Amino acid sequence: MHRDAGKDVLVRRSLLQEPVGGKVRCNVCERRCLLVAGGAGWCRTRENRKGCLVTLTYGAISSLDVNPIEKKPLYHFHPGTKVLTAGSWSCNFDCPWCQNWDISRAGPPFNGNYFSPEDFVRLAKQTGCQGTSISFNEPTLLLEWSLDVFRLARACGLYNTFVTNGYMTPEALNLLIEAGLDAMNVDIKGNTAVVKQFCKGVDVEKVWANCRLGRSRALHVEVTTLVIPGVNDSDESLLGIAERLVRDLGREVPWHVTGYFPSYKFTAPPTPVGTLEHAWQIGTDAGLQFIYVGNIPGHHCDNTHCPACHAMLIERRGFRVKQTTVHQGCCAQCGQQVAGVWDEDGKQCSFTGDRLQ
Ligand code: SF4
Ligand SMILES: [Zn+2]
Fold it and tell me: Of 45, 59, 78, 270, which is most buried, counting CB atoms within 10 Å of its CB?
């Protein structure tokens, strides 16, 4: 990382910009901000400079870490492998419970640390990672840098992942897939009213549409819902998400119901384990095959079982895979295909579910 690199290196011409009269529209995320000359977008990472939209955060890396892929969480995608993960600054949502608010609510001037895509991919290889992940804050805001990283990483045999609120435009998601995005974990934060109210005008239908788009383009998709007391923990809310997952994405899409901790503007006590177990039951009753209780290390609902014979397929302890009996993408006991992307003797084996075949 080049500290003191100065801010100019972080400023690049923004993709997906469109002149509208004397203004410029940003089509990177579904806020589709219209920026007046000299103005900034909702996320503050993009500015209209003399009629040209620029990003202020190309390669501006706030956080860098080697993580198990399970930490994203992605449970059905190269389990047991490691990813080099980068985060940047700011967000296009303003959720009052944000668990990473120190970087997501930071505004300009952004830190001048610069990390080139080449250095990032080199470090991923040097640290023995099998993939990359853009995470910690909303990765969509790092679109241009992500595209450059993904192209390089794929050429080196690494996989690429996003942990996202899913509010990129379809244009942006298509660019990411074409550059080499392989998997994403998407937050579904609640129903239409909850997301609109708490995330400041966000239309959750756009998030669902991106999940469907990803699945239709063979992207590996897993979904997370941070279960927050008083926000989205009612039976109606959880059942609504679970049924929608079955209907829109298929029974085989993994759903992570994770526990919240007080953070940023939210002081409600942490999610009770019983609430997460109840969410697990609601998902099961709705027909989902793979539901995981998250942020409760060692919980028995953190393991993967065969949807046909119920044999234990993957046993986890925290973010560590203790053992797996998935062989060539199938249950070793009964032969049932298991949705996901699995490594088998160095070869990759994928199965995205009946609905898409
Ligand atoms: S990325 Fe989204 S929030 Fe940021 S300027 Fe573009 S449209 Fe607005
Ligand atoms: Zn089985």
Answer: 45
Could you tell me the distance, in angstroms and rounded to a whole number, from the CA of residue 29 to the centre of ligand 1?
5
Give the relative orientation of helices 170-179 and 204-216 as an angle to the nearest 10 degrees. Answer: 30
Amino acid at site 306: C
32 Cα nearest atom in ligand 1:
7
Asked if 213 and 249 sit in the same domain, the reply is yes
Tell me, yes or no, whether 96 lies in a domain. Answer: no
Distance of CA 231 to the CA centre of its chain: 21
- Ligand 1 binding pocket mutation candidate from 28, 32, 146, 207 (most atoms within 8 A of CB): 28
Angle between helices 143-155 and 117-126 (to 10 degrees): 50
Residue 168 lies in a domain: no
| pTM of model > 0.90 | yes
DSSP H/E element including 282:
helix 273-286
229 and 322 both lie in a single domain: no
Q: How far is the CA of 79 from the centre of ligand 2 (A)?
A: 18
Q: CA-CA distance, 52 to 345, in Å (whole number)?
A: 49
Query: In terms of C-beta density within 10 A (0-12 exposed, 13-18 middle, 19 or more buried), how is residue 251 classed?
Result: middle
Q: Which ligand does the CA of 333 lie closest to?
A: 2
What is the distance in A from the centroid of ligand 2 to the CA of 139? 36
Say if residue 211 is in the same domain as residue 286. yes
- The domain total for the chain is 3
- Report pLDDT digits (tens) over 63-111: 999 999 999 999 999 999 999 999 999 999 999 999 999 999 988 777 6
Over residues 15-50, the pLDDT tens digits come to 999 999 999 999 999 999 999 999 999 999 999 999
User: How many Å from the N-terminal Cα to the C-terminal Cα in the chain?
Assistant: 43
